[in-house]
Amino acid sequence: MAEGEVLIDARGLYCPIPVLRLARAFRDQPAGVAARLLATDPAAVEDVAVFCRERGHELVESLREGDVFSFLVRKISSGR
After folding, report:
1. What is the Cβ-side half-sphere exposure of residue 74, based on CA atoms within 13 angstroms?
2. Which member of 15, 23, 43, 45 is catalytic?
């Protein structure tokens, strides 16, 4: 994890909890902050993509290592 990244460990949690935790982590952060979301629910792949598209954030990276999905998301909009 890079310095300044927020880490959200949502492994073992199911839809919609991983994305809700990501949204909560962004709530009081300024634009430009990056968050690394770790999840094991395959639904998170689509959920994170939709979250970014609808809220105007950037999905910088989406990886899978074994059964863990890792998403790096940068907060672009400051409103949400």
Report:
1. 6
2. 15
